[in-house]
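Dear colleague,

As promised, here are the two records you asked about, laid out in our usual form so they can be pasted straight into your sheet.

NAME FIELD: protein one
SEQUENCE, THEN STRUCTURE:
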Amino acid sequence: MSPSNKEVASLIVDYLSQLVEKKAVSEEAIDSLNVAIDCIGESFEVQKGDSKAVFGGKGLVELLQNESGSSSETATTQAESIKVNIPAEDAETKAKAETLKLEGNKAMACKDFDLAIKKYSDAIEVLPTNAVYYANRAAAHSSMKAYEEAIKDAESAIKTDPTYSKGYSRLGYAKFALGQAEDALEAYKKVLDIEGDKASDVMKRDYETAKKKVEQSLDLEKKPETQARGADAGAGGAGGSGGFGDFASMLGGGLGGLLNNPQLMQAAQQMMQNPQAMSQMESMMQNPGVRQMAENFAQGNGMPNMGDLMNNPALRDMAGSLFGGANGNAPNDVPKNSDNGSN
């Protein structure tokens, strides 16, 4: 039960009276205390000594000391009953790791990538639970074109903290550098998913760059099939198999089709060994129309118009002699490339 205001006032009066009796204060202060004792006594209708009967003879100081001791014991008991979890990475450990990271950042700024890798590695050794250190070391590896090592560190960063977008960004960069555009696109997509509306222009640009690369790869995969269908259609429209129709189909793929067509390359080799064919070639090049088409092609103006080629008698005769008809010498099956390495 809490004491009343009158009871508390009696404690104060007794306490102040003790100070006066012991002369614990100056003479001027004693006069002031006496005034205070009279005022409190009149206000609460208490007198000196009233508090002893209420509080069992204990004064204000003793009561406060007992209360303070009880509170301390209670606090100690409560503290003992609460389990305090102290993190493994204390402030000192964190500070040491951060210092090493900053030294690595300075080395990166000076393009001393070996030193940067060492500093980041030291930071990881001190505090292996920080994804930033792995991501920074991945950036240093990429700067040295050690992309496989960069991928390992980027994956470690992601494993340590799956919500740290720079881990995926480092992974995307290394994957893209190794020509793995689809994997890079997936990593950059994850960056945008994590950042959301906070995604920077650089993050968006990286994603678009990888996306464009993937689309270009898909287009290149489709082109050979499209060219093959176009070549077959050109051959059918030029009079069936053999003769100038086969020659037209070879040209259907442009310059790439010429260089990658085994039949044409074999025929060219045979022509180089055939004096009659070479004579026909020299005569044909005297033709102003043929010479003009050749010059246009050499100047980068694209392949000659197929209609012009098919209507040129000189080319038609040469194609007939080189590729023949159904009984020509062009092989039906193209052998697989042998082990011919480039010097």
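NAME FIELD: protein two
SEQUENCE, THEN STRUCTURE:
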Amino acid sequence: MQQRSKVDVHDKLRQDLAKTEAVALRYDQKEEGAPKVVAKGQGYVARRILEVAEREEVPVVSDPALTKMLSALEIGMEIPEEFYPVVAEVLAFVYQLDRHAMEKNREILKQSEEKNRKA
């Protein structure tokens, strides 16, 4: 019975991995006219995309509907205009996270400098 449950768990994990999808976008306002798809995949490839994003501290936004739409694009393609509104919302959220992180880092640096002056 114990062996059967291990197999069931393994099958469940494999099924979950197979359902995993990821699409990575890059957008440089100075270099590009619109965000571009730079990576996409399902299963193991999607997990690797997410692992790299985590390692590089790239924000990840979970939006299955958007992922489905973006996964239809080829790597290197700019997103079509009809995707602009929803991708703009995602980018605004990411920029807000970045701004918040920068402000927090400044605050930590300032506190550290004050402690060093007092010491």
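A couple of things worth noting about protein two: The helical segments are 2-19, 44-55, 64-71, 84-118. The chain has one domain: 2-118.

Best,
R.
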